[in-house]
Amino acid sequence: MKRTLLSACLATLMLYKPAFCADLTWISNVKLVSPEKLDRIETGSVLIDGGRITRVERGPAKAAPSGAKVVDGKGYYLTPGLIDSHVHLHAVPGMSMEQGASGDSMAQNYFRQMPRSFLYHGFTTVIDLAVSDYGVIDRFRKEPLHPDVFHCGEALVLANGYPMSFMTPDTRFKSFGNFLFDPAMPTTVPAEFAPATHTVAAGVARVVKAGGICVKTHFERGFGANRNLPVMSSAKFAEVRAATAQAGKVLVTHANSFEAQSFAVAGKADVLAHGMWHWGALNGQAGLPNEIKALLDKIVDQRTGYQPTMQVLYGLRAYVEPGYLNDPALRKVVPASLLAWFSTPEGQWFKPEVTEGEDDAAVMQGMEGPLRRQRAVVAYLAGRDANFVFGSDTPSSPTYGNLPGLNGYREMQQLHAAGMSLAQIFKAATINNARTFKLDAELGSIEVGKAANLLLMKTSPLEDVSAYDSVVTVWVRGQQTAREALAADYK
Questions:
Q1: Does residue 114 have a pLDDT over 60?
Q2: What's the DSSP call for residue 15?
Q3: pLDDT tens for each residue of 413-470
Q4: How far apart are the first and last CA of the chain?
Q5: Number of other CB atoms surrounding residue 119 within 10 Å
Q6: DSSP 8-state symbol, 257
Q7: Torsion of CA 424, 429, 435, 438, to 10 degrees
Q8: SS3 for 249?
Q9: Residue 338 has what pLDDT?
Q10: pLDDT at position 16
Q11: Is 396 exposed, middle or buried (0-12, 13-18, 19+ CB in 10 A)?
C-alpha cells in the first residue's frame, strides 16, 4: 500500500505541480451529485491531493488511503463548487464608484469580506465580465480565502456609448481605455486618442495580454437620462466576433432587449449577458409573441449561452421593498458597518435614481411588466432546454440589492420560480458555465484531474432550491473551510 501510494504521489507531482502528498484528504460517506452523471446519485468517496481530485469512488465505502485526512460527509451531498459567470468585483454595492474607490474604511471592509461572501453561498469560481481596475483582481486573489477568479479584461465599448456614457466627457475616455471607433457611428472623440490604437484587433489584444478568457461587448441604447446612445454596427460587431474567435476567447454581449438579442444572435455572440426584459413594440402583449419565440429558437439551436440575470430588477426593487435591510441573510455577506450605513440618508443616495420621483408602490408596480417578460422568456427557453449559464450580475448597478453570494442564491430562487428545473439550475451553475467559458478541463464536475472545488450540502440541489443555503463545508483547490466561518458576522 505504501509503495502504491508513493507511486501515486509521484505521478501526481509530475502532472500537477505543486502537489503535497502529506495533504491527502479522503471525503467519504457522501452522496455524489455531479452534473455529468445526474442519473447516478449514489454514495461514494473522493480523494483530494495537492488541490486536485485524484480518485472518485462510487458504491460501498472503501478504506481511506494511508496517511489521508478523513472527512466524514455524514451522508450529505457532495457537489462541484458553483460558478457565477457575471460579477463586477470593483464595485461596492450601495456606493458610487467614487465612494468605493476612495479608500473608505467601510469599502475596505467590504472588499476583505467579499470573497468570503461568494464562498459562503457556494460560489468557488467567479468571472468578472468587465475589469476597470486590475488591482481589484490582484487584491481579491491575495485574500487568504477566495474563489477562483477569471475575467474578460476591459470591455470593448463603443466610443461615447454604454456604459462610458455615464461618465463625464472629460473622464470617460481615460476610464474606458478599451473603447472602439466605429466609422458607421460617427461620434466626438478627443484628438489625443488615435483611431489606430483603438481598433478591434488592438482591443482584443489588450484583453489577451491581461489574461482574459472572454471579450465583453454591449448593445444598449440606454435608459434614464442616458438614452439614444450610439450602438455598434453589424460590421464592427463582425470584426469583434472574428478577432475574438481568432484569439480563442468567448464573446459575451450585454443585451437585454429583443432588438439587442436579435443583433447579438445574428452576430454569433457566445453568451448573452442578460435576460430579455424589453420587447420594444411588443411590450404590451400578454403572451410570448411569435417573433420572440423565433429568436429564442435560434438561441436554443445555436447553443448560445443565456444569462437571465433576474436579480437585476430585484436589486433595484430593494429600495422600495419594506423590510429588505432587516433581512438576517444580509448580515452574513456584508460587514455590519456597511449594512448600518445603507439605512442612513447618505446610504440612500441611489434611491432617487431608482424611483425617479414616483412613490414606492408605483415603482414596485412598474417593475412587474419587465419581470413578467423575463419570466416568459425563461420559461420558454427552459422548455426547450437552452444552454443556460448562471450569472448573477453582482452588483448590476450602485444598488445595495445585489450582494455577493446572496445575490446568486436569490437568482436561483427567481429562476426556479420562472420555470427552470432544479437540474437546469444546477447544470447552469456548474458544467454549462465551465463548458461555455472553456474551463471544463478544470472545473464544473467531480472528476479525476479537476480542481478540488467542492461543496458539502445537507440537502440535494436536485430536491429543493433551498439546498444552496444548506452548504456545510466548502473546498477551494482542496482548502477546506466551514461555511459558518465565512460569514461576515462570524465571531
A1: yes
A2: H
A3: 999 999 999 999 999 999 999 999 999 999 999 999 999 999 999 999 999 999 999 9
A4: 43
A5: 27
A6: B
A7: 160
A8: coil
A9: 97
A10: 35
A11: buried
How far apart (Å, rounded) are the C-alpha atoms in residues 452 and 183? 48
208 grid coordinates: 489577451
Query: Could you give the C-alpha distances from 141 to 247, 302, 334, in angstroms and in order?
Result: 25, 35, 19
Gap between the Cα atoms of 197 and 195, Å rounded: 5
C-alpha cell at 428: 447552469
> 123: which 3 cell numbers?
460560489
Say whether 99 sits in a helix, a strand or coil: helix
274, with CB counted inside 10 A (0-12, 13-18, 19+), is buried
Helix (H, G, I), strand (E, B) or coil at 89: coil
Task: Kindly report the number of other CB atoms within 10 A of residue 235's CB atom.
Answer: 10
Nearest to 217 by CA among 278, 149, 162: 162
Helix, strand, coil percentages, rounded to 5, for the chain: 40, 20, 40
Q: Which tens digit of pLDDT belongs to each residue from 332-390?
A: 999 999 999 999 999 999 999 999 999 999 999 999 999 999 999 999 999 999 999 99
Residues 321 and 314: their CA atoms lie apart, in Å, by 9
Helix, strand or coil, per DSSP, at residue 351:
helix
Helices first, then strands: H and E counts in the chain = 17, 17
In the predicted model, is pLDDT for residue 237 greater than 70? yes
The kind and range of the H/E element at 243 are helix 234-246
Q: d(Cα 99, Cα 91) in Å, to the nearest integer?
A: 10
Cross-strand bridge partners of residue 79: 455
State the pTM of this model.
Answer: 0.94
Cell of 376: 416568459
Q: Look at residues 265, 257, 237, 267 and name the one whose alpha carbon lies nearest to residue 156.
A: 237
Give 35-38's long-range contacts (Cβ < 8 A, gap of 24+): 35/80, 35/426, 35/427, 35/430, 35/431, 35/432, 35/444, 35/445, 36/431, 36/445, 36/447, 38/423, 38/426, 38/462
Each residue of 2-38: pLDDT tens digit?
334 334 444 433 333 333 344 899 999 999 999 999 9
Write out the three cell numbers for 196: 489606430
Is residue 27 packed enough to be buried (19+ CB in 10 Å), middle (13-18) or exposed (0-12)?
Answer: buried
Provide the grid cell at 439: 474551463
3-class DSSP state of 155:
coil
Secondary structure (DSSP) of 406-444: HHHHHHHHHHHHHT--HHHHHHHTTHHHHHHTT-TTTSS
Peptide bond into 395 cis (omega under 30): yes
Q: What are 320's three cell numbers?
A: 422600495
How far is it, in rounded angstroms, from Cα 166 to Cα 105?
26
Three-class SS state of 463: coil
Contact 274, 256 (CB under 8 A): yes
Question: Could you tell me where the DSSP H helices lie in 131-179?
Answer: 134-142, 169-175
